[in-house]
Amino acid sequence: MGRFAHLAYTDSVRRVQEEQGSGLLGVRALAQPDTGPDELGPDEAAFLTTRDGFYLASTGETGWPYIQFRGGPAGFVHVLDERRLAWAEVRGNRQYITTGNLRTDGRVALFFMDYARQARLKLLGRARTQGLDEDPALTERLDQPRTDGKVERLMIVEVEGFNWNCHQHITPRYTEEELETALRPVRARMDALEQENARLRARLAELGEQD
User: Fold this and answer.
1) Do the beta carbons of residue 149 and residue 135 sit within 8 Å?
2) Where are the annotated coiled coils located (predicted)?
């Protein structure tokens, strides 16, 4: 769990863990030294770059958290390296709450879900926005794939820590593409059976005429 535990398991959290009988969980996690930000590995990169959406939480000047959903084609979140991920921000409802929050507090939490496989990945990081002209090469890199719409800025997140969650309580849900993939062999089998039934009906009709 690395740095994630050192960031998330505060004294108050540890007290609750002790009260609820899961204190050993915190002891084990915090026994790992905080050697710096967690680095994304191949498993994390593969998971992140195949998601078609995630939840993004930030905190405003009033101290209240705010959460938004970011969606797009699979791969619209780009893993730049072991520490950074980024995507193109397109125009939405023009409230700019997340963008405004980041001007005073860049700390964010990201929640990536794979409902079909009942998997989830939580990330803590520091986010910043970047103008489209500041790094033309990066702007071009994040252009495909990206969310449809007018791109207003880039969002770059430097990962501090991450944690894979257990699959408990995740209700399986499927996208149209996932359903199409799963149902393709079923439909092929149904087509074959219908063709076989048609041949059998035709054969029975021939036998009836012969009688």
Assistant:
1) no
2) 176-210
DSSP 20: T
Both structure tokens of 125: 């990081």
Which residues make beta-bridge pairs with 161? 124
- Give 81-140 as a DSSP string: SSSEEEEEEE--SS--HHHHHHTT--EEEEEEEETTTTEEEEEEEEEEEE-TTT-HHHHH
CA distance 112 to 119: 8
Go through 197-209 and write b for each residue having 16 or more CB atoms within 10 A of its CB, e for each that does not. Answer: eeeeeeeeeeeee
Tens digits of per-residue pLDDT, 115-157? Answer: 999 999 999 999 999 999 999 999 999 999 999 999 999 999 9
CB 108 within 8 A of CB 58: yes
pLDDT tens for 63-86 read 999 999 999 999 999 999 999 999
What CA–CA distance (Å, rounded) separates 89 from 126? 16
CA 165 to chain centroid: 12
Type and span of the H or E element at 65: strand 65-71
Q: What's the rounded Cα separation, in Å, for the pair 57 and 101?
A: 10
